[in-house]
Each structure stands twice: as structure tokens, then as C-alpha cells.
Amino acid sequence: MHELPVIEEILAVVLTHAHRHGVSRVVTINLEVGSFSDLEDAWLQRYFDHCSRGSVAENARLELIRVPATGTCRRCNHVFTLAAPGTDKTGCPLCGAVDIVLDGRRGYHIASLEAL
Amino acid sequence: MKPGIKLIEVKEDLFADNRRAAETLRARLRASRTFLLNLMASPGAGKTSLIMQTVAALAGELRLGVIEADIDSMIDAETVAAGGIPALQLRTGGFCHVDAVMVGKALAELPLKDLDLVILENVGNLVCPAEFDTGASRSAMILSVPEGDDKPLKYPLMFSVCNALVVNKTDWLELSDFSVERLTERVRRLNPGMELFPLSCRTGEGIEAWTDWLRREVAAFLN
After folding, report:
1. What CATH number did the domain enclosing B218 receive?
2. Paired sense of beta strands B87-91 and B117-121, if any
3. How far is CA A106 from each of CA A77, B129, B156, rounded to the nearest angstrom?
4. Nearest by CB: A17 against B4, B10, B131
5. How many domains does chain A have?
6. Could you tell me which of A53, A63, B118, B214 has the fewest CB atoms within 10 Å of its CB?
7. Residue B176 lies in a domain
């Protein structure tokens, strides 16, 4: 529901780096998104298309890479990739404990740009 | 990758600005010795009711203030201010959440050095507010019984970022198939450290355990 502020921030970061490298056109933006984020992929692109009009990032494609959350079991210290949210299966796959520490579930990280 | 296209490493996190603003705000709150509680929930879960109950229980011992964030109304701040507590309405103007910058502006309007505890009522929404650090010392959420015990499965982020979960409207339990046990198990899977407080703002049952927790957290912050 807050795709717009996210997009405004993505665009600001992208334009800063595009200008720093003197590129003429940004083709692809590789964006890593935590698996617990509720943002809609289609809306992100739509807002981006709108906000980027007239800039070097116009027509760039957002490549969304969903980064799975990881869990660390507090009982056996096993580190594992978490099943998608929305299920009851979030226990440790090794020992079955449900006492786990989650990491990497939220946030957005602009990994790189592909540009001309 | 097509020829001619070059790869530019960016490696930048979004909301880094907001996280910095949140840290600045936390430092400001430490300096004025004011505990900020970020309270989140769906519309209708009982945020304002819980604030009114909390204010009634703690007003004698702590100096309280309230920030009411709402997309476009003044009604909650008017309700709280009628109880004699400094209350500020933060109209987000369509925004679905509040961030640290907005909270910082709102706090500037309150007499912080004369306040021990400020409760921020976030926008009614289980999705967006979970993504933005408000600069609060602690975050709490409310889930009300009519919403169902499956909500941790649908909004895992919200349940994983809070320190305390108030289960409101327990007077409705007998009318529904909501299971506090099932909810607790689901919450623990996401957030083993979450404190749970089943209560009813309407009957007052269970309020004390919640206000005791808040009192302890404020005392620990002030010491």
C-alpha cells in the first residue's frame, strides 16, 4: 500500500548513481526485496513508470529478487531458509523446535543497475 | 546482459534515511527521558480504547502524552484530549503509515521534557506501519478476537517486529472459535520474545498485566 514512497526512494537512489556514472539510460534495476514484504510487484513497476518519466531511468525494468527470510534455531543453532510466510510450517527443519530467530524478512536493497 | 550495457553496483538499502531519522529521534527521546510507545493495529481493534484505559491506569504516576496518527480525521485526538491528556493529531494526508520524520515533527509540538511516556497511535493497518521504524522505544500491537487467530500467518512482518501483543475483546471469545493458544503458538514461531496480553478494554479484565508491563518498560528506560 506504500508502493509510492518506496518508488520515490528507489528512483532517487537510482538517479544519483546514474548521474555519478554518467549513463545515458538505465535499462534494469536489480532490487532485492525481503520475502515478508507485502508490496505488489505490478504496482511497483506501474508507479516506477509514472515517476521516472522524463528521467534517464524512464522505461527501466524493475527486476525484483525475493530474498527469503532465514531462521536460526535457538535450540540446535541450525540456520535455514524459511518457508514462505502464510503457513504454520516455520519450525526448525532439523530438530523441530519453533524457537527461532528470524532475519532478512523485511527491507529493500538496490543491488545494482544495468545501464547504457 | 546485452553488449554495451554496463553493470553499476549500488548496494544501497532503502529507508536508510528513515532508520537514521529514527536513531536521531531515539537519542532525542533519551535526552528528554521520554519513552515512546508505537501502538499498531487494524482499524477497529481498539487502539483508542486501549490508550484511554492505559491513560486511566497510569495517569497518576506517569506524565503522559498521545500522538494520534490518522489518515484524515481529528476524532481520536479529541477523544483523548477530553480526558485531560496532551494529545496531538497527526494527519498523514493519505499515507498508510507514519515514519520517523513525521513522528519527529509531531514530538516537537509536545512538551517532551515534561512527559515520561508518549503513546503513538499508528495508522490502522497491519501491513505498512510494520515496515517503518518510528523511532519508538518499544512497539506493541493489538489483535482483536473478531479478527481471527490466523492473522500471524497473513501479516507475519507485523507480528515479528513488535515487543508486545495485546489480544483485545476477550469478552467475545465465547462467541467465536478464536483460540488464544493457537494464536500464541503462531506468534511464538515468528517472535519467541513477544509478550502476550489477552484483555478486554470493555470489561477491563486483563488490563493490569498490560499496564504492569508498560510500567516496567518505562521504568527500565528511565533508569
Report:
1. 3.40.50.300
2. unpaired
3. 22, 12, 10
4. B10
5. 1
6. A53
7. yes
- CA torsion angle for B37, B40, B46, B52 (degrees, to 10)? 20
Is B31 part of a structural domain of the chain?
yes
Give B93-118 pLDDT, tens digit per residue. Answer: 777 788 898 999 999 999 999 999 99
Query: Domain range holding A36?
Result: 3-115
Residue with cell 519508538: B136
C-alpha cell belonging to residue B45: 481493534
> Are A6 and B14 in contact (CB < 8 Å)?
yes
Cβ of B96 under 8 Å from any chain A Cβ? yes
Q: Is ipTM over 0.95?
A: no
- B188 close to A (CB below 8 A): yes
Question: Does residue B13 lie in a domain region?
Answer: no
- Pairing state between β B35-41 and B117-121: parallel
Q: What is the pLDDT of residues B18-57, one digit of tens each?
A: 889 999 999 999 999 999 999 999 999 999 999 999 999 9
Contact B118, B54 (CB under 8 A): no
Stated pTM of the model: 0.84
Inter-chain residue contact B8 with A115, CB threshold 8 Å: yes
Total domains present in chain B: 1
Q: What is the CA radius of gyration of chain A?
A: 18
Cell triple for residue B174?
465465547
Contact in structure between B137 and B36 (CB atoms under 8 Å): yes
- Cα torsion B9, B11, B17, B23 to 10°: value is -150
CATH number at residue A40: 3.30.2320.80
Using the structure block, give the residue that is written with the C-alpha cell 478494554. Answer: B201
Identify the domain containing residue B183 by its residue range.
22-222
Is B39 inside a domain boundary? Answer: yes
Task: Say if A14 is an interface residue toward chain B (CB within 8 Å).
Answer: yes
> With an 8 Å Cβ cutoff, is A22 touching chain B?
no
